[in-house]
């Protein structure tokens, strides 16, 4: 079973209770995956439960499933969040996709002062929905029991306000200390902050540092905004014992 399908948000996966796929998920399973009655697939609820299920009815708008075996996966602790600055082109979207595959637990779009891309008006809801779709598709590809939530876009001041009970890790190429030497603090949330193409303004850095952020470098080279987050996630996955 190389494919994962998600039941509608809010639907639970309980042994003995039929599950269903609807709309796009049903169409994909029925027409692209060529699922047939009696065949087994992997399904999830996006909030920690995966199940092996057998198709009892297959159609392009609805697939009905009999659950055979369910497994509940606890959310990793501490959680690792990505605070990704809005970037031009598809660079921020590439970061969302790869970080989801690497296990990020939550995603915050960051409207940094030097972000070339700006979300205003209708772009705000559309941008969040786009990132959530990317995170969901990447979760399916990587067979994740948990789909990371994409929060509403936040300003630097709003992110700094999280510093009280969230450990902020600001990735800075010129920082003295390396992320590879970071010892995870006793906090339920570790936030990796990736700035825009032009870096963050000094006033933004000062605000974040005053809120308890640590500035850390990834290495001796400067990474793109699309690759810095995934590189940081890989390091943290190792140092925090998630891999």
CATH homologous superfamily name of the largest domain?
SPOUT methyltransferase, trefoil knot domain
Main sheet, how many strands, which sense, barrel? 8 strands, parallel
Radius of gyration, in Å, reads 20 Å
The count of β-strands is: 13
Name the descriptors:
243 residues; alpha/beta; Ribosomal Protein L25, Chain P; Alpha/beta knot; 8-stranded parallel sheet; 5-stranded mixed sheet; 6 helices; elongated
Task: Compile the SSE list and pairings.
Elements: E1 4-6, E2 19-22, H1 23-32, E3 40-44, E4 49-58, E5 62-72, E6 79-85, H2 91-101, E7 106-111, H3 122-141, E8 149-150, E9 154-155, H4 156-160, E10 167-171, E11 177-178, E12 189-194, H5 202-210, E13 214-217, H6 225-239
Parallel strand pairs: 1-3, 6-7, 6-12, 7-8, 7-9, 10-12, 10-13, 11-13
Antiparallel strand pairs: 2-5, 3-4, 4-5
């Amino acid at each position: 079973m190389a494919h994962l399908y998600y039941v509608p948000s809010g639907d639970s996966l309980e042994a003995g209770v039929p599950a269903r796929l609807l709309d796009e998920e049903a169409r994909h399973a029925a027409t692209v995956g060529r699922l047939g009655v009696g065949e087994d697939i992997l399904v999830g609820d996006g909030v920690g439960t995966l199940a092996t299920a057998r198709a009892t009815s297959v159609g392009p708008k609805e697939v009905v499933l009999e659950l055979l075996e369910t497994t509940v996966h606890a959310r990793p602790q501490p959680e690792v969040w990505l605070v990704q600055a809005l970037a031009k082109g598809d660079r921020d979207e590439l970061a969302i996709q790869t970080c989801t595959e690497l296990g990020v637990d939550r995603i915050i779009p960051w409207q940094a002062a030097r972000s070339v891309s700006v979300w205003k008006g209708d772009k705000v809801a559309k941008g969040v929905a786009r990132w959530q779709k990317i995170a969901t598709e990447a979760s399916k590809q990587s067979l994740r029991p948990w789909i990371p939530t994409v929060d509403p876009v936040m300003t630097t001041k709003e992110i700094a306000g999280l510093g009280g009970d969230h450990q902020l890790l600001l990735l800075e190429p010129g920082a003295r200390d390396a992320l590879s030497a970071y010892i995870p603090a006793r906090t339920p949330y570790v936030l990796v902050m990736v700035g825009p193409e032009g870096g963050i303004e000094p006033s933004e850095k000062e605000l974040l540092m005053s809120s308890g952020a640590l500035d850390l470098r990834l290495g001796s080279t400067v990474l793109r905004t699309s690759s810095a987050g995934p590189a940081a996630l890989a390091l943290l996955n190792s140092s925090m014992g998630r891999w």
